[in-house]
Amino acid sequence: MILLELFITFFKIGLFTFGGGYAMVPLINAEVLEKGWMTGEQLVNFIAVSESTPGPFAVNISTYIGMETGGILGALCATLGVILPSFIVILAVARFIDAFRKSTLMEGVFTGIKPGAVGLLFAAVISVGLTTLFPDGINGDVFTSPLFLITLITFILMVILSFKKLHPILMIVLSGIIGIAAGHIFDIPV
Length: 190
Hints:
The two termini are 32 Å apart. This protein has a domain of 102 residues. Helix 1 packs across helix 4, helix 3 packs across helix 4 and helix 7 runs antiparallel to helix 8. It has eight helices and no strands. With 190 residues, the protein is an all-alpha fold.
């Protein structure tokens, strides 16, 4: 039963994701947490691993969640579920490409979808940010904890370095090094 549920869940996520893999984070967040497949903190860790490993984010995160939830067959079902909608849409678009190019209806659809995708990306940033910066909720103690300060400093540094056009791979490596060093210095559990 879990295999079918993984397939259907990720098929639905793949079907309604516009704007790239990160736009699916709010959908994944809602589905995975509602079903009790993992906690918010576990999901943030899966997001970090998914964006740090080679390959498309959507495939990586669906595979990891499927593996965690249903083993190897779960990984296959979740991955197939998330990629199948795009495959079907691409086949349909390829068949009717000329009609889509000239369609004012399709132009209108994409004009409406673009701000929606940006909104989903913003929601993902807020959701992941709250879980990362405030894993135990917002209270006065959070702002003085080493974990919050390290996370905040790392975030600010990465924003500055992104404006300096530092290569994303170097930023990921640097973030990992900061996390490892901070974990050893402050004895932060993983």
